[in-house]
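dumping this here before i forget
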Amino acid sequence: MPCVSWRRSVLKRLRKKIRHSLGGIVLYGILLPIRLLPLNLLLWGGRCIGHLAYYVDRKHRGIGLKNIEMALGKGKTPRELKRIIKENYCHIAQSGFEMIRALEYGKRYAHLLAIEGKENLDRALAKGKGAIGIMGHIGNITLLLRKIANEGYPASVIAKDTKDERVSRLMQELRDRSNIGTVPPKPKSLVAKRALTSLKKGELLIIPIDQNAGKEGVFVDFFGRLASTPAGPVIFAQRTGAPLVPMYIIREGRKRHRLIIEPEVPLVNTENKEEDLITNTQRLTRIIERYVRKYPSQWWWMHNRWKSKPAQKQENEKMGKWESGKKN
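structure:
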């Protein structure tokens, strides 16, 4: 029996490794034609691939439908939710093609990337303490970084590698060639050191906060359920005084994108630092939720956002406070 169990474990790891590597192999196999084909044709092909993936990828389609039903099910019919997820697959496929062509968005396709609210970021950076850009996985975040680079802002992003090393290397190459620094999310001591150094230099530090943060996150309400959320942005802001500036990029039509930079979100500061951490993280999460509701087909629904679970007592207490706050 131990021998059988060992073989199953080895086969499971092997299948997992092959699955994670497949995306990178396919990606590198189509790099050349992607770089040669017209953008219009690529985006049309992306929609075709997205439609196909929706029907083939049963696992992630199921995760996406479960998540969107939980989050938006009260206001939409099952048919509408399926349509949003199908469109989401098309958006992701198109974003993958655009990622490979991202460098051209500073030259050939610069006119397809608009920016709104640039003055908000300028005003935040003028304080001389750097700025913390808060973003979610909405729209094409590779093009968000590209637009920041195009505008001449010195910036770094806290970004974790994908499970496929080839894809990670490609994304790192794109960031390097766009002059966007990368801060790996681990180890924590190194993250804090590099992030604080970036802010002391007066740079923009971009941090996504809409993915599961596990045991290291704080639990805040996201679409009516507690979700473990990165606390780093608020902690860095508390330590340095760096302004918190939400920013999102939205796909507009077939080819165009708009980077939206919102005004600084002021920190709530009281004598209770632990409550302040939760309160401020909740305020940032509310902004992300607002954008997801407005552009549901452009958020990463296939991620298991609510994977981590708080203790039941903690969940009851926090949800009770939020319900009480809503009534008042």
